[in-house]
Amino acid sequence: MDLLFFIAPLAVGGISAAFAALISVTDRIVNNYGDVVIDINKGKKELTVKGGQPMLFGLAESGIFVPSACGGRGSCGACKVTVRSDVGPLMPTEAPYLTQEEIKGSVRLSCQIKLKQDVEIEIPEELFNVQDYQAVVEKITDVTHDIKEVYCKLPEGKEVSFISGQYGQFEVPPYGKVKERTMRAYSMSSAPSDRNHLEFLIRLVPGGIVTTYAHEHLKEGEKVRIIGPFGDFQVRDTDATMICVAGGSGMAPFKSIFQDMIDNGTITNRDIWYFFGARSRRDVFYLDWLYELDEKYNNFHFVPALSEPQPEDNWEGPTGLITEVLDGYLKEKISREHNLEGYLCGSPGMLDACMAVMTANEMKTEDIFFDKFA
Predict the structure, then answer these.
(1) pLDDT digits (tens, 9 = 90+) for 54-79
(2) Is the terminal CB of the chain with fewer CB neighbours within 10 Å at N or C?
(3) What global pTM score does this model have?
(4) Cα distances (angstroms) measured from residue 75 to each of 99, 257, 281
């Protein structure tokens, strides 16, 4: 596969982040703004916040949390709002993340809009219910050589309500050369029935601020800030066959989804195919639990595949890229008695490759669901 396929999204994110940082520093030095008013959803809420800061942060200060997978760096495109007043022309840092339809509809990235005057915006009303939790890390478990399961307990009297498949924003404090608190988005891996805890699977990304902290500094008993839930990645209420594909920490939402389906008794209602791609045996986890589901439920099919199995792995399962394995199963083994729905979680490159395979096998784009984290 063309290396540019994987590098291009990263390059766009890096350039956008650099632009955002330069613009932010210049504006902060030159301008000084007073308070501004943010009118939300035609008067549903009205906030008075300090001017000069990005809208994303001004909203958060007042308890309105717009999703941001990158923590406001301008590299994910998640923090979209509809702006109904003049806030200036579209920034070059926004354009890569907006469709022409969104641009015509006055959609903007809230992390790139400086609050210089009163503004009117529209956001989904479910964001009014997003909560800010001060949790305690109760347990950290190494599930692979580069993925940690982080299990957090909410404060006494606090409960969380989320839909399996959604994500939260996990914040870490300054450390080393990192001078400010930093937040990134991770899917919840715990089941919604566990209302007193939130669990995340955090994979170590070389140079990643939050992942490095989680792997090298985070301790059991430490307090962490978690904001959520966000996202609309959730199981649709249909009888369609679920084609689920993940790799690495993309396991997280599916762990939550499958356990939720067991808890609410819907696990037997439809066929489920779960494809999990990894490089070698050391990158695969929760095998015992997933094979147990495969054995217990006739409609649940677990298909792990290794792209580079090692001799010591003694691997007898499918080999090759998960997209190749998925393509073979869609062509030869998965029944078309019911419609097919796709559920994906992984890197942007993996998601795009899986989308291409699914649509090439006559799955409809509107029936393929995912949250794409940059």
Answers:
(1) 999 999 999 999 998 787 888 888 89
(2) N
(3) 0.83
(4) 16, 28, 32
